[in-house]
Amino acid sequence: MCSNGAVPRCIVDLTGYYLDLVLKETCSDCPVCAGQLQAARSVLGLMGRGEGKDGFLEELRALAGEAARLAECGVGRIGAGIITGALENYDEELEAHFKERYCPAGVCDIRYAVEV
């Protein structure tokens, strides 16, 4: 990440940020951009709030795979690449958000449920 670590960034937050940039460039007519990439963004949003659950990484993998396979434009392929890159390189950080309800970078606003 370009800041040499000076700015703490969470991979969930960063992936969502770049996916938002990609989604701003879509025509919204393409089923990949309107479907798979938008669904992946929703999953990342849930993970960033600590509302994720088992199976989210597999869901993201499936959405990215479908997007890469079905995309007819570069925008859809770039979005799929962003998700795939995050999954390949930061799977432990991604899992921490829903398995441990913890953001390793301390960036995400994860609400903890306290049982009394």
CATH class division: Mainly Alpha
Instruction: Give the CATH superfamily.
Output: NADH-ubiquinone oxidoreductase 51kDa subunit, iron-sulphur binding domain
CATH fold naming: de novo design (two linked rop proteins)
Which bin fits the share of residues in helices? 55-70%
Give the integer mean of the pLDDT values.
84
Q: Characterize the largest beta sheet: strand count, sense, and whether it forms a barrel.
A: none
Count of distinct strands:
0
> What is the N-to-C succession of helices and strands?
HHHHH
Q: Number of folding domains? A: 1
Total helices: the number is 5
* Percent range for β-strand residues: under 5%
Assembly level: single chain
Describe this protein's structure.
With 116 residues, this protein is mainly α. The protein has a single domain (11-99), classed as de novo design (two linked rop proteins), CATH 1.20.1440.230. Helices cover 62% and strands 0% of the residues. It is built from 5 helices and no strands. α1 (11-24) runs antiparallel to α4 and α2 (31-48) runs parallel beside α4 (74-89). The longest helix is centred in the middle third of the chain and has 18 residues, at 31-48. It is elongated. The mean pLDDT is 84.
